[in-house]
TrEMBL record:
Gene Ontology biological process: maltodextrin transmembrane transport; maltose transport
Taxonomic path: Bacteria, Bacillati, Actinomycetota, Actinomycetes, Pseudonocardiales
Originating organism: Lentzea waywayandensis
Record's keyword terms, sorted: Signal, Transport
Protein name per its UniProtKB record: Carbohydrate ABC transporter substrate-binding protein, CUT1 family
Keyword tRNA processing: no
Keyword Transport (UniProt): yes
Gene Ontology CC, one term: ATP-binding cassette (ABC) transporter complex, substrate-binding subunit-containing
Pfam families: SBP_bac_1
CDD domains (UniProt xref): PBP2_MalE
Amino acid sequence: MVHKTSRSIAGVSALVLVLAACGRGDEQTGGQGSADIAQGPATGTITVWAMGAEGEKLPALAKEFEDANPGVDVQVTAIPWDAAHNKFTSAITAGQAPDAAMVGSTWMGEFAGMGALDATPSSIDKNAFFEGAQRTTEVGGTSYGIPWYVETRLLYYRKDLAKTAGYETPPTDWPGLKEMAKALQAKSGAKWGIGLQAGGTGSWQSLLPFAWSNGAALTKNNDAAYNFDSPEMQETLKYYGSFFSEGIADKEAPAQPTTEPDFVSGRVPMFISGPWMMSAVEKLGGEGFKDKYDVMPMPTKKTSSSFVGGSNFVVFKETKNRDSAWKFVNWLASPQVQVKWYQSSTDLPSVKSAWQDSALTADTKLAKFGKQLDTAQSPPTFATWEQAITALDTEVEKVARSGADPAAALKAAQASADSIGTGR
């Protein structure tokens, strides 16, 4: 990735007011907003929780907010991902949640359902964010927090091997993707034409970009129920499964695939992943490898769509310093700070205008991820999503590894989801 010297963001406390002025209130997507943010600089103490590498890097960024707001003290606690969910739920139950926190997008429905989250002030411009990312903050028509950073998935492919197989430009639709994968096996010496997850935990993240590109909706009855067995989902799983049944993808692929070495060696010259894999394959491939591969949008059936993930930033309802907590969260959403955070963490900006900065536009591969974010979608914010999706992962594995009937597999996944319910 191309990283340029970051611009100074000292003195950006005024950005809170600028962003507030841009809001369009109840005209925005996301339902009602809570009381607005008071004018003036942030003051007092704000307790903030963040997970993983973000939790380790956030204090340095928070120091810049403190410099711009001399009366505020931001106390960041870094939490390991594997302990985070239980720590949050215990703190919410005990009335000891922090003022603000980074929250995984799939936890939003659960925490909002517990009555723990403060609704996003209506002055925060929800239209500033990628639509798919913004929707991860919305539960029951109300937005809680902001999408802090995002990620999406594209198809990585070996440009040099594709040329050997007769492809100067990548395919753009479903049939074209399968034909190129076959050609890579037949003409470029690839063992497998494409690497796809053959079921197991998280395989839904590989399946859903194809489903959304086929127009599939994951909910029905006005978001009152899951919708795993629609005709669009059945067609998608049939297509996905065909890569395994036709010997184009490895049905015995391990749960932890050796993606980078297989890609660099040409054994598996295509796979689906996010932008973090660029540095991984380039490091392993060595000098000049970045010119041997490229990324392409998810192929179109009815459209081109992909998965949007990342993390949100929320304010908890029981905060004792609501205004300052929201000023900090709002500051994190300013374009300059989003670019600054990307340069520090490589987390992609959720704010559309931040993608106009040269720090992101200079890398042509990275810019393609930004383009895909325009149409990327997110799972529903049901409190039971992580439970319901387990059955879908299981059924995808039956189709991929054993050739099970896609329609029957999705019927079973739907029955399981129906028994679990949405949690609302």
